[in-house]
Amino acid sequence: MVSLLAYSTAATGVLFGVWLAARWPSPRWVHILVSSGVIVAAIGLWAAAL
Question: Can you tell which superkingdom this protein's organism belongs to (predicted)?
């Protein structure tokens, strides 16, 4: 279960990195904060499910 949480966190981080790289010339801090909030919420949901 811990490895599932670790892998899902890593996959979410990779998706965030790809998104940030695509928007790199002008990433807005609002987008970064919202995306970070979504990542934290997803990790919280996975932790609650396990």
Answer: Bacteria
pLDDT at residue 33, as a whole number: 78
The predicted model scores a pTM of 0.47
For residue 7, give Cα distances in angstroms to 28, 40, 43: 27, 14, 11
Exposure string of 9-42, with b = 16+ CB inside 10 Å and e = fewer, is eeebeeeeeeeeeeeeeeeeeeeeeebeeeeeee
User: Residue 21 corresponds to which amino acid?
Assistant: A
Share of the chain above pLDDT 90, in %: 0
